[in-house]
Amino acid sequence: MTGAIKKLAKDTAIYGLSSILGRVLNWLLVPMYTRILVATSDYGIVTNLYGWAALLLIILTYGMETGFFRFMNKSEEDADTVYSTILTSIFVTSAIFVAFITIFLSPISGWLGYAEMKDLVLILAVIVAADAFSSIPFAYLRYKNRPFRFAFIKLLFIGLNIGSNLFFLLLAPKLYVTHPALVNWFYNPDYQVGYIFVSNLIATGVTLLFLTPCFLKVKYHFDFVLLKRILTYSLPILILGIAGILNQTADKIIFPFLFEDKVYANEQLGIYGACFKIALILVLFVQAFRFAYEPFIFSKGKSDDANRIYSVAMRYFIIVALFAFLGVMLYLDVFKYFVGEKYYAGLAVVPIVMLGEVFYGIYYNLSLWYKLSDQTHWGAYFSFFGCFFTVAIIFLLAPTYGFMACAWASLICNFAMMLASYFVGQKRYPIQYDLRSAGAYFLLTALLYVLGTRVEISSEIFKYLYKTILLIVFVLFVVRRGDLPLRQLPLISKLFRKDENFK
Predict the structure, then answer these.
(1) Left if phi > 0, otherwise alpha if psi is -120 to 50, otherwise beta: which for 261?
(2) Secondary structure, 3-state, 105-121
(3) How distant, in Å, are the alpha carbons of 179, 196, 198 from that of 164?
């Protein structure tokens, strides 16, 4: 591995670790939310508004982060001019957005179904605008090769957000009862769900303060002609980003509009959103796998057997993803305690959403072909193709089948994109994937899933022993086939013949 690749692996580790750790820690707030928030509709509000936040963040950054890296690395461009032009543009559009929301706060809040909670809509608008603006200084830190400062500020945000949540939702209510004089001048026990957004706002504000040096060290020069060229490059990325984020958040955004009873809609969305978080365990597995394996893939990109390496990478991915799927599904009786008891009605969505995430992960791996062949427009086509399925299924079926339609929309969307990417890719950039191996693992997973969820065992000890044996069967199948280099481990190598393919 060359020095450049080693450096790439090191920086990827730092950036990736802060991202994965951040998602894990924020994910761990869900058990508190689902137990402390009075009603499931409260968590439905959180799910819905953060769904909007994800979409609005894509719109307010309008592809400029990618444009930043593209134009900062052009030798004919002045780096300070590129940075200050993009930063000024994002600042102006973010400010206009906040002003627009402030002026039309009442009608917008009413349209969203939060006429009595206008403050939450305004707080969310400020958070999204600040996040859009801070995305450019964070990109600047990456450009300047400051991974440790980048990770520090990201982790600071996470720590402040979690700490503020713990204070407002756990400590402050107790102090309000035992020592009211300490907190009753600012704390309102009836504002419970609002403090989730207040916590985010506090963390966002402090993050901006720590990013201040990135604003002050640059000579500001706004170049309108340059901005037009950057926008020409970046706006197509915005379209692709909107389609991509809608595939992930359309269910959480659209769902409340499909029911006249907004309280009922938020109750159901809260149940769905909480159980959806259980399925994110697979997302974290997938991220960890990519984080560990991508540097190796890049280091082999120019080798003669690159196509074989991509095929092996896909096989590794499928094995890890299906193992994670089985691990959660066989022990769902344990993982369900991740959410409060009043959310258990939504547990049926977990296997559907998780399988959809497996398909999305395969689609992500398949996307290699259009990235390597500079045919990235296909990524836009696939995203819009999947988005059509998502929105159509939710509109047609959610009024009748509720949040289960959202789960199926996610699965069908990801499955459709996966198939489309595979068949088009095989014509334009063929890679010989091991379909027989993939099929064998999916069939085995399906069999073990049925055996693990349909066989009733009254004894808790024997039930979990039985399910553990099923997981071991999966691992033994992997080792016997030699599809992962597990046989090279010292203890395993004594039990099984080493696979020549991985020497």
Answers:
(1) beta
(2) HHHHHHHHCCCCCHHHH
(3) 19, 8, 8
Specify the amino acid at residue 109.
Answer: S
| pLDDT tier, 490 (very low <50, low <70, confident <90, very high otherwise) | very low
3-state secondary structure at position 78: coil
The region of weakest confidence among 289-303, 334-348, 399-413 is 289-303
- Burial annotation 345-377 (CB, 10 A radius, 16+ → b, else e): bbbebbbbbbbbbbbbbbbbbbbbbbeeeeeee
- SS3 for 200-260 is HHHHHHHHHHHCHHHHHCCCCCCCHHHHHHHHHHHHHHHHHHHHHHHHHHHHHHHHHHHCC
Q: How many contiguous H segments (helices) and E segments (strands) does the chain have?
A: 23, 0
The pLDDT value recorded for residue 500 is: 45
Phi and psi at residue 37, in whole multiples of 5°? -60, 135
- Report, as an integer, the average pLDDT of 241-258: 89
Domain coordinates of the chain in residue numbers? 16-257, 259-503
Report the distance separating Cα 218 and Cα 139, nearest Å. 14
Instruction: Please check whether residue 89 is in contact with residue 67, taking contact to mean a CB–CB distance below 8 angstroms.
Output: no
Alpha carbons 274 and 443: distance in angstroms, whole number: 29
- Record the tokens describing residue 84, joined without a space: 């200050």
Which two three-digit tokens encode residue 145?
């090769």
Mean pLDDT taken over the chain: 85
| Residue 425: its H or E element | helix 403-428
Q: Summarize the confidence of residues 470-494 as an average pLDDT.
A: 72
Q: How far does CA 48 lie from the centroid of its chain?
A: 15
340-383 pLDDT tens trace: 999 999 999 999 999 998 998 898 888 777 766 657 678 888 88
Residue pair 151/14 in contact by the 8 Å Cβ criterion: yes
Q: Distance (Å, rounded) from C-alpha 324 to C-alpha 319? A: 9
The Cα angle at residue 27 between residues 298 and 139, in degrees rounded to 5: 45
How confident is residue 313, by pLDDT bands cut at 50, 70 and 90?
confident
- 11's tokens: 């920086």
